[in-house]
UniProtKB/TrEMBL annotation:
Residues 26-37 have a biased composition (Basic and acidic residues). Residues 20-51 are annotated as: Disordered. Gene3D superfamilies: alpha/beta hydrolase (3.40.50.1820). It comes from the Bacteria. This is Hydrolase. GO terms for molecular function: catalytic activity. Residues 137-290 form the AB hydrolase-1 domain. Residues 405-498 form the Peptidase S33 tripeptidyl aminopeptidase-like C-terminal domain.
């Protein structure tokens, strides 16, 4: 497979990700001559001018309901970015950034700029590096998380009613499980919500796209007074990073696409990939949970399916199918995925199956807070192109549920959340890269699914680039945050020499 993105992967034992000098490089139009020049990647620089940082570990921990990470210093700052960079002197928006480093981090180290797009606040994704296997990366360089405009520390948008948010949270589940009825109810809430948010944000309701967030990275680069950024994107942050790369190709010094999604992909196709990928992730969770001796036992799929079915029926204090799915996938994304952590999640599910939904509801509430804020809805809808009509959703749900019984209905209904919302024009795609990207693919990604990464293949082919692709068989959101092997490879990638062969690698779970 030509770009090496999510194809058959050469299995590499352990963490064998060292460089290979490879063959001599043929350059220029002297096809019969081999150059002995050692290829080098673009030079990276530490910030010449820095932001006004202040310690904020306690504040960030409180915001996300977690313990402050031990041995990691968190600092916060904000900067102004133009709402529309094409209109100098116009309105600005505050962009929040959080920096993580350790006592061992060199003072002159080049920072990695982290964005997780609208999946969840980048500042929350950063905490996974502070507490997981990615912690070792902070000893080499600081990671600076840039929250997507309108999300997290970049300021929250408040434009929908509590009732509308509740409809989004359950995807309009109630006593009637009929998908057509749910789609109509959800569409009505979406359209009224769109009207209110348009009124609140006008004239800038289309200024929350991935392309706009990409320009916020350019503003950071200018404030730092550096030639290039080293960007680490996770999930939908890949669209932010690629929009930045398309608009400012020579300002990208390194580009890591961690658990990426497709770029400018039709909404139906993107949702279908997500349904398949999340179904595979849930299957992996249930298998590993059974192996760890979880309370779900060997037939966890039946328990999970039963919870979603009765939840959609609205019986008692049951949660909807959408809430159950979001609770589980978010817990797998940011929670403990060790055997002990899987057992805790399993206990919440089996308790809910017995009628005690307290623990699962707490997980659902945390998921809603982290992944369904008004600003995230605005951003997603700005970028959702080619949505099917509401009347098509029941057939789509039936079709997808055949292959993905635990995820098909929810991902189909998710498409209705943007009915009536404004959509931006498709941003240009990068036509070349100043440096070959490094792509990390989590086979069990609980937020977007692994299938989404394959949608980048046409883009890589069109840009005539040869990325290094690394697959990871672990369970979690962000390969870099959960795999020391991947973190070590990123450290190598930040060096001056390009990564050598092989271009397809694997890191152990």
């Amino acid at each position: 497979m030509a770009a090496g993105v999510l194809t058959s992967v050469a299995l590499v034992a352990g963490c064998a990700v060292g460089p290979d000098t490879g063959p001599d490089i043929v350059r220029g139009d002297h096809g019969d001559q081999k150059s002995t020049e050692v290829p080098r990647q673009p030079e990276l620089q530490a910030p010449r001018n820095d932001l006004n940082w202040s310690p904020c570990a306690g504040k960030i921990a409180e915001r996300y309901g977690v313990k402050a990470p031990e041995g990691v210093r968190l600092d916060c700052a904000r900067y102004d970015a133009p709402v529309d960079p094409s209109k100098p002197g116009g309105a600005t928006v505050k962009i929040g950034v959080v920096r993580a480093k350790t006592a061992a981090t060199p003072a002159d180290a080049v920072p990695l700029v982290l964005t997780s797009g609208e999946d969840m606040p980048s500042s929350r994704t950063l905490l996974s590096f502070a507490s997981g296997d990615g912690h070792a990366a902070l000893d080499r360089q600081p990671i600076v998380a840039v929250d997507h405009r309108g999300i997290g520390t970049s300021g929250l948008i408040d434009c929908m009613t509590t009732t509308q948010r509740g409809t989004y949270d359950t995807n309009a589940a109630g006593d009637d499980r009929d998908v057509a009825a749910r789609a109509e109810k959800l569409s009505e809430a979406a359209r009224t919500g769109a009207d209110q948010c348009n009124d609140t944000l006008s004239p800038d309701q289309l200024a929350y796209s991935a392309a706009a967030a990409g320009e916020d990275l350019e503003q950071l680069r200018q404030r730092w007074d550096v030639d290039r950024l080293a960007v680490l994107s996770v999930g939908t942050g890949s669209s932010v990073a690629l929009a930045f790369a398309a608009a400012h190709p020579d300002q990208v010094g390194r580009l890591v696409l961690d658990s990426p999604v497709g770029y400018n992909v039709d909404a139906r196709a993107a949702a279908a990939s997500r349904a398949r990928g999340l179904q595979a992730t849930l299957t992996a969770f249930l298998q590993r949970c059974a192996g760890a001796g979880c309370s779900l036992g060997a037939n966890g799929a039946a328990t999970l399916g039963r919870l979603m079915s009765t939840g959609a029926a609205g019986q008692g204090d049951a949660l909807s199918d959408t809430q159950v799915l979001d609770a589980v996938t978010t817990a797998l994304a940011v929670g403990d995925t060790s055997p002990a952590g899987l057992k805790e999640l399993s206990a919440a599910l089996t308790a809910a199956d017995r009628g005690d939904t307290a623990a699962l509801r707490a997980l659902s509430d945390a998921a809603r807070s982290l992944r369904l804020a008004d600003g995230q809805v605005v951003a997603r809808c700005n970028d959702m192109r080619g949505r099917p009509g509401t009347d098509e959703i029941p057939a789509i749900a039936r079709d997808w549920s055949g292959q993905s019984p635990l995820t098909g209905t929810t991902t189909a209904l998710d498409l209705v959340r943007c009915d009536g919302w404004g959509v931006t024009d498709s941003p240009p795609a990068p036509d070349h890269f100043a440096v070959n990207p490094l792509i990390l693919v989590g086979r069990n990604d609980p937020v977007n699914g692994a299938d989404a990464a394959a949608d980048l293949t046409p883009l890589m082919l069109a840009a005539n680039t040869a990325p290094t692709t690394v697959t990871w068989d672990g369970l979690g959101y962000s390969v870099a945050a959960n795999s020391r092997c991947a973190g070590d490879l990123i450290g190598e990638y930040l060096g001056s020499a390009p990564l050598g062969a092989p271009t397809e690698r694997a890191c152990p779970a």
